[in-house]
Amino acid sequence: GSTKNIRKRIEQHNAGQVTSTKGRKPYELIYVEQYKTISEARSREHEIKKSRILKESILRSKIKALSSIG
User: Fold this and answer.
1) Is the pLDDT at 70 greater than 70, yes or no?
2) How far apart are CA 3 and CA 28, in angstroms?
3) Which residues of 31-65 are buried (b: 16+ CB within 10 A; e: fewer)?
4) Which pLDDT tens digit goes with each residue over 2-61?
5) Which alpha helices (H) appear in the chain, and where do they start and end?
6) For residue 24, which of 36, 35, 16 has the smallest C-alpha distance?
7) Model's pTM, two decimal places?
8) Residue partners of 38: CB distance under 8 A and separation at least 6
9) Cβ–Cβ contacts within 10 Å for residue 9, how many?
10) CB of 9 closer than 8 Å to CB of 40
11) How far is residue 59's CA from residue 30's CA, in Å, rounded to a whole number?
């Protein structure tokens, strides 16, 4: 989703205050992108959400980065 305060948004998800994610918690932030405008952010969010291949690619790159640390 889009937000100006990431920490607060994660807290809302984990407190069950977001209807669409209420039954699936706890949440942990694993990926962030920043944009200058909310319009750009929402466009990118839509692009990611509609593409399974893109979501899987983002997750694979995150897992690869984490495995190289440990």
Assistant:
1) no
2) 15
3) eeeeeeeeeebeeeeeeeeeeeeeeeeeeeeeeee
4) 888 999 999 999 999 988 888 888 988 888 899 999 999 999 999 999 999 999 998 888
5) 6-14, 38-50, 52-69
6) 16
7) 0.67
8) 2
9) 17
10) no
11) 8
φ and ψ of 3, to 5 deg: -160, 160
For residue 23, report the phi and psi dihedrals to the nearest 5 degrees: -90, 0
pLDDT given at position 22: 85
CA–CA separation, 46 and 52 (whole Å): 12
Token pair, residue 69, equals 């640390």
pLDDT for position 30: 82
Q: 25: which 2 tokens?
A: 């918690």
pLDDT of residue 27: 86
